[in-house]
């Protein structure tokens, strides 16, 4: 079975570590990298070639163009999942539009 290559991006290192532990516990995912700032993500996507970007909503809305646009420009087939604990729905929609 091919493992999904995952890049996590959250401002909190502890959450990045917890996500990695959770994702790798079943042997179906390989966390290929962790980012803690929006400006690290495009280079990490280019260099690490993940299948999935697991992205904190706060990081997703940082910068212009959005991190999601930059990541998809590097890897158009990238799947992006945005995590949000609390978020203004309009801001979240703007981040992924």
Record the strand order, biggest sheet: 2-1-3-4
Quaternary structure annotation: single chain
Going by helix content, strand content and strand pairing, the class is alpha/beta
Specify the helix fraction band: 40-55%
- What are the segments in which pLDDT stays under 50 over at least 5 consecutive residues? none
Tertiary shape: globular
The largest sheet, given as strand count, sense and whether it forms a barrel, is:
4 strands, parallel
Describe this structure in words.
This protein is α/β, with parallel strands linked by helices and 97 residues long. Helix content is 41%, strand content 24%. It has 5 helices and 4 strands. It has helices at residues 13-24, 41-48, 57-60, 67-74, 89-96, and strands at residues 4-9, 29-35, 52-56, 79-83. Strands 2-1-3-4 form a 4-stranded parallel beta sheet, with helices on both faces. α1 (13-24) links the parallel β1 (4-9) and β2. α2 packs parallel to α4 (67-74). The radius of gyration is 13 Å and the shape is globular. It starts with a strand and ends with a helix.
